Amino acid sequence: MLLRILTLGFLLSISFPYAQEDYGRLRQDMVNTQLKTRDIYQKTTLDAMLKVPRHIFVPDNVKPYAYTDGPLSIGEGQTISQPYIVAFMTQALKLNRNSRVLEVGTGSGYQAAVLGEIVDSVFTIEIVEPLGKRARKTLQKLGYSNVVVRIGDGYHGWEEKSPFDAIMVTAGAEKVPEPLLEQLKDGGKMIIPVGPHRGIRQLVLLEKKGDRIKRRNMMAVRFVPFVRPED
Ligand code: SAH
């Protein structure tokens, strides 16, 4: 009998690994141990990371790992970046309340939600339809009415909503898509992983200054590839 109770308890703990308040504690730990101990100091970014429920954006099988220090599979062969990378890319764009941001690579919608906590409006594009639809639902459920998801190829950006104060590309490109640079405001910033297909890429921060583009390599990263419809 005792064994049966123990077995039942064990099985329950597998299927319901954490209660809501536990997720809150795990999120707090994530901010303290993975972000503040590294180089994430911007208050708006830390506050957003503390607020957005990352576990809601990931599939059930990886929920228990939602706040661990690494990337996670979100289905369709795609991944959600490590929390530190999400925070790093967000912080690098130096956003404010009035910013209008374009994200290419919606994935789960998590990064878009983090941006949505900080800025006025987020436009995000996802090429894999089931992912885009799921992200749109999750964002709606959580009340992110300032985040708009479009399904399609993000290479061409989102002309009608341009120009943007900031652009974030969350898939690894071989080179910077020209149309995205064109849709950036003067003084605007873009962050994008650039490098060889499936290799180590550089997270590049670009800043548009008149007709010049300032370019700075921030760190080496791995990202799922930026794909084109003809690939
Ligand atoms: N930012 C996401 C993770 C992105 S993973 C999150 O927070 O969960 C990269 C995503 O970019 C994948 O979902 C992939 O399907 C998408 N992607 C790849 N190439 C794309 C393209 N050309 N246009 C739009 N999305 C693209």
Brief overview:
The strands form two sheets. Strands 5-4-3-6-7-8-9 form a seven-stranded mixed beta sheet. The chain has a two-stranded antiparallel sheet with strand order 1-2. The chain is globular, with a radius of gyration of 18 Å.
The unreliable regions are none
Given the helix and strand composition, which structural class is it?
Answer: alpha/beta
Bound molecules: S-adenosyl-L-homocysteine
What do we call the CATH homologous superfamily? Vaccinia Virus protein VP39
Output the radius of gyration: 18 Å
CATH architecture: 3-Layer(aba) Sandwich
CATH topology: Rossmann fold
Strand order in space, largest sheet: 5-4-3-6-7-8-9
Average pLDDT figure: 93
- The separation of the N and C termini measures 58 Å
Main β-sheet description: 7 strands, mixed
Q: Which geometry do the CA atoms define?
A: globular
